[in-house]
Amino acid sequence: MTKRPHTKLIHEGHYAAEVDSDWLESATGWSPALSLEDAHKWDTVREALRRGDLKQASQLARIFALTPLTV
Fold first, then answer.
1. Would you call the peptide bond into 32 cis, given omega within 30 degrees of 0 as the criterion?
2. Which residues of the chain have pLDDT under 50?
């Protein structure tokens, strides 16, 4: 089984987060897959952004504030 780095972008409300994780690749035909730990990390970041808990989210991901543009 091989690991390939992947960055997941999660968007919630006025925030976005870049979460680093690894895709797991194998020759079984069910590739790529995500580890259970990385799936929990994605869920934790998403829930923290929903609550507005930027401190917790920033421990697991890079956080960005989204600003609407008027053209």
1. yes
2. none
Question: What is the tens place of the pLDDT at every residue in 32-45?
Answer: 888 999 999 999 99
CA dihedral 47, 50, 56, 58 (to 10 degrees): 110
**Beta-carbon count within 10 A of 22 CB:** 16
CB–CB of 41/60 below 8 Å? yes
Q: Could you tell me the residue ranges of all domains in the chain? A: 2-65
What backbone phi and psi angles, to 5 degrees, belong to 67?
A: -120, 125
Task: In the chain, count H helices and then E strands.
Answer: 2, 4
